[in-house]
UniProtKB/TrEMBL annotation:
One Pfam family matching this protein: ThiF
Gene Ontology cellular component annotations, sorted alphabetically: cytoplasm; SUMO activating enzyme complex
Name assigned to this protein: THIF-type NAD/FAD binding fold domain-containing protein
Gene Ontology MF term list: SUMO activating enzyme activity
Length: 108
């Protein structure tokens, strides 16, 4: 699965990459593109945090959303499609506001 990436980055970099946990804030157009690339890269886990529900405007920039998702949380609607990209990466969603999160949340 990662043979091309391993060739470019090397085994040591791939091992280090596999140990990382990544928090991505907002699942809009840019956030979902970053999430997709990080999941494909093969980190240990990705948490996609978003408190915003899908609007009609999101459909133009966030390619994992559809009209059926309008009114639903953007991160939750994107979760299964992100998980399907790489079985080796744990993908989670948080709909909690970052201002409500304790310091322990960010140490995960």
């Amino acid at each position: 699965f990662f043979s091309r990436q391993r060739y470019v980055l090397g085994d040591d970099a791939m091992k280090r990459l596999r140990k990382h946990h990544v928090l991505i804030v907002h699942a809009g157009g840019l956030g979902i593109e970053i999430a997709k690339n990080i999941v494909l890269a093969g980190v240990q886990s990705v948490t996609l945090q978003d408190t915003i529900n899908t609007s009609m405007l999101d459909l133009a920039t966030q390619y994992y959303l559809s009209e059926e998702d309008i009114g639903k949380n953007r991160a939750q609607c994107s979760l299964e499609k992100l998980r399907a990209l790489n079985d080796y990466v744990k993908v989670n969603v948080s709909i909690q506001s970052l201002s409500d999160c304790s310091n322990e949340y960010f140490k995960q």
